[in-house]
Amino acid sequence: MARTPGAASPMPHTLDIKIPLPPGPLASYITRALSVDAELSKDSVHRSFSCSEDMLEIHYSATSARMLRVAVNGVFESVRLCVRVAAELSPEVLDMEADEVQGNEVA
To answer: How far, in Å, CA of 102 to CA of 10, rounded?
Structure first.
C-alpha cells in the first residue's frame, strides 16, 4: 500500500511473514484453510495470504503494535495446528515418520 508523504496511514504497523515449508501442496493447503477465517477486528487488522510451492507468505497491517502482535500470535498457532494435522494425517507431506509427530518433534 502506497503512503502519501506526510499523511498518516490508518494501518501504520505492518509485517510480512515468510514461512518455508517442504516442497509440495502444504503451503496451498494452509493458505486455503486459514484464508476463510476473517480477522476478528476487521477495522484494526488486515491480512492477506499468498503461497508458492515451498513458501507461505502472510502480510499484516494493523492500527497498533498490540493488535498486530495479537493477530500474528493467532496465525502462528493456526499454522502450527495445520502443520501438525498434515503430519498426523499424511506424514509424507512433511517427509517424516508418524512416530516423530507423536514425540513432539513437530513445532
So the answer is: 44
Fill in the amino acid letter for 54.
Answer: D
- Three-state DSSP class for residue 27: helix
- The size of the chain, in residues, is 107
Q: Are 51 and 28 in contact (CB under 8 A)?
A: yes
Are 61 and 8 spatial neighbours (Cβ–Cβ below 8 Å)? no
Contact 79, 32 (CB under 8 A): no
pLDDT in tens, 56-94: 999 999 999 999 999 999 999 999 999 999 989 887 777
Both ends of the chain: CA-CA distance in Å?
Answer: 33
Question: Given the C-alpha cell 499523511, which residue does it identify?
Answer: 7
